[in-house]
Amino acid sequence: MSESVLLTDEDRALPIKSRGLLEEAVKTMSILEDKKTMTNLKQADQDIKAGRVRDYAEFLKEPKDTDQI
Description:
Blueprint: H1 9-33, H2 35-49, H3 56-61
């Protein structure tokens, strides 16, 4: 008589996890290839390092009719 091998819950979840990881990798690569996005991220990093930041509550207090949003 042959022995049956059943997949564990972890085995069945692996393709779903792998798909999610692959999708994240593709998104990351598309961001890294987008020069405008990377320039903006570098500028944001410089702003943070220079202290040009405000918390969310301060942001909400700003007038909504500014062109900075």
